[in-house]
Amino acid sequence: MALKIKWNDDRVREATTAILLISRDRLRRGLTEDLIQSALDDYRADPAGYKEKRAAWAGAKEAGPLKNPQHVAYYKSLVVAVDALLQRMARIKRQSNSLLELDNYLVASLKNVR
C-alpha cells in the first residue's frame, strides 16, 4: 500500500511555508522566474539549509524585506492563494501518494497567482 500524504500532514504545511519564505527571498533578490517551482526545488534540495535560514527570516505572512511594490502585491496575493489552497485541500480531504505528486499539485495550483 502506498504512503499517503494527507491534507493535514505536517509535510503539506511545511512545503507551503517553504514556498512562501523562499519565494519572498527570491523576490527580494530580484529572481522572479518560475517562483513556485524553484522555491520547492530549493526546499527539497536542502531542507536543513532552509530550516537554518527560516530561523532568521520574518514570518511567512509578512512582506518584510520586499521593497518593490509589484513584488509586495504579488507576495500578498501568494499568501492569500496559499491560505485558500490549504482550506480547499482540507475541505476535499486531498491526499498525495508522494512528495513529487504533492509538489506538482502545489505548483499547478499556485502558478497563476498574480
Structure report:
With 114 residues, the protein is mostly helical. The chain has 5 helices and 2 strands; from the N terminus they run βααααβα. The protein has helices spanning 10-28, 35-45, 47-56, 69-92, 99-110; strands at 5-6, 95-96. Strands 1-2 form a two-stranded antiparallel sheet. It is globular, with a radius of gyration of 14 Å. The chain starts with a strand and ends with a helix. The model has no long low-confidence stretch (mean pLDDT 94).
Topology (elements, then pairings):
Layout lengths: L4 E2 L3 H19 L6 H11 L1 H10 L12 H24 L2 E2 L2 H12 L4
Antiparallel strand pairs: 1-2
Helix pairs in contact: 1-2, 1-4, 1-5
Number of helices: 5
In the sheet with the most strands, the strands line up as 1-2
Rg, Å, rounded: 14 Å
**Percent in strands:** under 5%
Distance between the termini: 39 Å
Features:
mainly alpha
Q: Could you give a short description of this structure?
A:
With 114 residues, the chain is mainly alpha-helical. Helices cover 67% and strands 4% of the residues.
